[in-house]
Design brief:
The complex is a heterodimer. By secondary structure, chain A is of the alpha+beta class. Chain A is built from three helices and nine strands. In chain A, the strands form two sheets. Chain A has a six-stranded antiparallel sheet. In chain B, the strands form five sheets. Chain B has a seven-stranded mixed sheet with strand order 2-10-9-8-7-3-4, sandwiched between helices. Chain B is α/β, with parallel strands linked by helices. The N and C termini of chain B lie far apart (58 Å). The radius of gyration of chain B is 26 Å and the shape is globular. The chains are: A alpha+beta, B alpha/beta. The A-B interface holds A 43, 45, 63-68 and B 289, 314-315, 319-320, 323.
Chain lengths: 128, 460
């Protein structure tokens, strides 16, 4: 498992999700803290490409040996890609939560929402 | 009756004094708003001494007729198959009879292995790769399959064949109301699901389709065609199957059925006046994580020895709370154990032999009965163990009573569930009904129909 880290180039939602923003699209995933709390991830249940997600609401489920949890969208938009690789290797969510463990790519519907996300320092402060 | 209550008058007085009221009545008066109070006693008869209650219940029970007290051709979902002695012997063993859910694998290997063997048998029988370790009974298995579909695709419409067991349709309706799915019923045509109406009812908003094989009228459906009609929709294809005819019918897994469910009573459980029994639930791998109930898995222990554990428990209510795949905790494990013992006792060839025997006797009975005056086949579809007749112009309930007076139960009055089939009679066979029994049915039903027609003619 990776060491605890919260990359500064990402933005964070208080429900332990990150967003990597690139113009009008963003990639979502869960934070190091979230995967650590879940424990060994055994299954990722992705949304369908083309479906829409709303900031603060669940768009996918992640199942660990301990629990099944909702994954909350940090921003609103339409799913344009899902990480199908997680079907065979859900452990990437543990091993590389900000890289191979990414979950979905979203075309943003309201870029104004970005201002409400936390930077790495602010998010980390919520964990203590 | 104080011997049945845990609170003595002294206990009560102490508790009332602790909360500062003088009586139960005062507690109610102070706590429950007057406009929601009933304001009178419940309309119940006075209490009886235990001895009189026993006599009363005995008199009520004496009104029941056991399948062993008459020659019965009653089926309609529950069937009077022979239950071999080995089942009672194994079910009576205290290791099986007493335990609760085997959460601790280290002390539950026998039960877990029995569950695993049960799942394997159901999986082989249905031709579907995954099976859970049983649910409550058939209709709730059907309704749970609806909930699985709701979790899987969220589409709001269920397309349901009218050939699905009436109890399954009712239970599904109750569940569907809870999670907001709408039921669209497809009628039968010449005894089977009307293929055009079925195809027309399925669209992009259909979350699941439900049919029964053989259907409630005993007719063998074209399962492959029914399943493939849903191929271009998001629908989960749910088939409710009678397990016994699977010795001679194509397994649901080879017909495009995604979820196969059904009533397990026929596998080693007696009728027992309607229960308890168990339900089985098998599915394709795509729905593994949406399945309700317990699943036993095979694994190895720290020393590499074969062992069994409950697996995929994160779907279940004790971990997942309100997001569980099901909140029915009852697996009817003992009844399901009877099921796997029965299938093992019968064996692969035995199940085929039983199916063929049923085919022959059913064919003979149908042929003999439709040759009677006033008795017609309700449909001309192939059947395995049950078939529907119509008795034009007869009061079916009255015909059944006449037969029962002669010691024969001729079957089930379809008008009880199907307004459009007021003169329908459903006749079921098991290996316990011999050729002589069938001949006796022919004689008794022929006489009853003739007498009924005379009586109706006389009064007309």
């Amino acid at each position: 498992m990776a060491d605890a880290s919260y990359p500064t180039e990402l933005l964070y939602h208080s429900e332990h999700d990150w967003a990597r923003i690139d113009g009008d699209t963003a990639v979502f995933g869960i934070t190091w803290y979230a995967q650590d709390a879940l424990g060994e991830v055994v299954f990722f249940d992705p949304p369908e490409v083309g479906s829409s997600v709303s900031a603060g609401e669940s768009y996918a489920e992640v199942e660990s040996v301990k629990a099944v949890s909702d994954v909350v969208a940090p921003l609103s938009g339409e799913i344009v890609e899902v990480n199908l690789g997680l079907g065979d290797t859900p452990e990437n969510i543990n091993n590389d939560p900000y890289g191979d463990g990414w979950m979905v790519k979203v075309k943003l519907s309201d870029e104004g929402e970005i201002a409400s996300l936390l930077d790495a320092a602010a998010y980390e402060a919520t964990l203590s | 009756m104080t011997q049945y209550t845990a609170v003595t008058d002294a206990d009560l007085a102490e508790m009332l004094s602790a909360i500062g009221v003088s009586s139960i009545q005062e507690l109610f008066d102070r706590q429950i708003p007057a406009d929601v109070r009933l304001g009178r006693s419940l309309d119940l008869p006075a209490g009886l001494p235990e001895q009189e209650v026993y006599a009363h219940l005995r008199a009520l029970a004496a009104g029941n007729v056991s399948a062993e007290d008459e020659i019965t051709f009653l089926g309609a979902g529950m069937y009077d198959h022979y239950v071999p002695a080995v089942i009672d012997m194994l079910l009576g063993r205290s290791e099986f009879l007493t335990p609760y859910t085997p959460y601790q694998p280290e002390v539950s290997q026998g039960n877990l292995q029995a569950m695993f063997e049960y799942q394997t048998a159901i999986s082989e029988l249905t031709g579907l790769p995954v099976s859970n370790a049983s649910v409550y009974e058939g209709p709730s298995a059907v309704a749970s399959a609806g909930y699985l579909a709701r979790l899987a695709n969220g589409k709001p419409k269920f397309v349901v064949s009218r050939g699905l067991h009436p109890h399954s349709r009712e239970t599904l309706q109750t569940y569907a109301h809870g999670f907001g799915a709408e039921i669209v019923e497809v009628p039968l045509r010449d005894g089977v699901t009307d293929p055009e109406a079925w195809a027309a009812a399925i669209d992009g908003e259909t979350g699941a389709v439900f049919f029964q094989q053989p259907n409630f009228l005993g007719a063998v459906e074209d399962a492959t065609a029914l399943a493939s009609a849903a191929k271009d929709s998001p629908a989960v294809v749910v088939g409710q199957y009678d397990p016994i005819p699977l010795g001679v019918l194509k397994p649901p897994g080879e017909c495009g059925v995604d979820v196969c469910v059904g009533e397990g009573q026929t596998l080693g459980n007696r009728l027992d006046f309607g229960g308890p029994s168990f339900g089985f639930f098998a599915a394709t791998e795509a729905y593994l994580r949406r399945m309700p109930g317990r699943i036993a898995g095979e694994t190895v222990d720290a020393d590499g020895r074969r062992g069994f554990v409950l697996t995929l428990q994160t779907r279940e209510q004790h971990i997942r709370r309100e997001k569980a795949t099901s909140n029915i905790c009852t697996a009817q494990a003992l009844n399901a154990l009877a099921g796997v013992v029965y299938l093992t006792w019968l064996g692969k060839q035995g199940l085929v032999d039983l199916g063929e025997l049923l085919l022959q006797r059913t064919h003979y009975a149908r042929e003999q009965l439709v040759a009677l005056d006033g008795v017609e086949a309700l449909h001309s579809q192939p059947v395995v163990r049950e078939f529907a007749l119509s008795l034009p112009g007869c009061d079916v309930a009255s015909v059944i009573r006449r037969c029962q007076d002669e010691g024969v139960n001729p079957g089930y009055a379809l008008g009880r569930d199907y307004d459009e089939l007021p003169d329908g009679l459903l006749v079921a066979l098991t290996e316990q009904r011999s050729k002589a029994d069938i001949d006796r049915l022919v004689e008794v039903l022929g006489a009853a129909v003739a007498a009924e027609r005379t009586a109706v003619g006389a009064s007309a």
